[in-house]
Amino acid sequence: MMMFLVVFIVSGALIIGALWGAYGKLPDWLQGNLLAIAGGALMLSVALEMLEPAVTQSGLWATMGLTLLGASVFTAVDYFIDEKMQSGGGGGLLAAVTLDGIPENLALGVSLISGNVMQVAALAGSILLSNLPEAAGGAKQMQEDGNSNKKIILIWIGAAILLSIAAIAGNQLLRDVPKSTLSLIDCFAAGAVIASLATEVFPDAFKKSNHWAGISTAIGLVLALGLNQLGG
After folding, report:
1. Alpha-carbon distances, residue 166 vs 93, 137, 213 (angstroms)
2. Hey, CA dihedral for 106, 110, 115, 117, is it positive or negative?
3. Which residue in 123, 132, 142, 13 sits closest to 81, CA to CA?
4. Tell me: the pLDDT tens digits for 11-38?
5. What 8-state DSSP symbol labels residue 85?
6. Other C-beta atoms within 10 Å of 148: how many?
7. Side-chain-facing half-sphere of 99: CA atoms under 13 Å
8. What does the longest C-alpha to C-alpha distance in the chain come to?
9. How far apart are CA 149 and CA 132, in angstroms?
10. Which residues, other chains included, contact 47 with Cβ-Cβ below 8 Å and sequence gap of 6+?
11. Each residue's pLDDT tens digit in the chain (232 positions)?
12. Which of the ends of the chain has fewer CB neighbours closer than 10 A, N or C?
């Protein structure tokens, strides 16, 4: 029951964010600051929850290799979306949510196995904090690219379903997988997160909110630090 509740809340944030971006009023300055907050939270998540444990469990070289692979895969997909499909930033943010979200939700499903409420709350909170503004910003940009609201919502519902499946799969299929293998999944996710921050999140956040983005990034990092300490 707890698994489905957590998955519903985390994945539901994508749909709520998409509805907000497509139908609500989302000023550029607010969108930019929300993206910066999400970016700050993800920065800390990459360092403390993905890469640092992976170095201990899988070694430095494996951590470096899988991180670079994740960044390369995201960059290739993002390039294809932006340059070949002529998609705007909304498509890039959708790719960011999906590519780093699948491994993150796999890890979320695994954390639910232990039954550690605080650890689950910390991880779910970090994912929720990033999903909501990214979906809102992505939906808004898709709307500006001429996509209908119906199409936008259906796309983000599809993303939410995909990430829900990833979390359930992590919970059901990875129960007996060694931690060293799970850490490699986290490394791939970390690489995708890093590339998405550099190419999608922070450039768009600065463009829309200017230098306030720096403060909002720090706010996101501090919030994620609090969640991390809660989970510890």
Report:
1. 19, 23, 31
2. negative
3. 142
4. 888 899 899 888 887 788 888 898 898 8
5. S
6. 11
7. 28
8. 47
9. 17
10. none
11. 677 778 888 888 889 989 988 888 778 888 889 889 888 888 887 888 788 888 998 899 999 999 999 999 888 887 877 676 655 556 666 776 777 678 778 777 777 766 556 666 666 777 777 788 878 888 888 888 788 899 889 989 998 998 899 888 888 887 777 878 878 888 888 888 888 888 878 988 898 888 899 999 999 899 888 877 765 5
12. N
CA distance 77 to 80: 5
Residues near 28 by beta carbon (within 8 Å), at least 6 away in sequence: 208, 209
Residue whose tokens read 């709520």: 16
**What's the alpha-carbon Rg for the chain, to the nearest Å?**
17
CA nearest neighbour of 32 among 137, 148, 140, 177: 137
Q: For residue 113, which amino acid is it? A: I
User: Whole-angstrom Cα distance, residue 74 to residue 72?
Assistant: 5
Helices (H), the chain: 2-23, 28-44, 52-58, 60-79, 89-114, 117-144, 149-173, 179-196, 202-209, 212-231
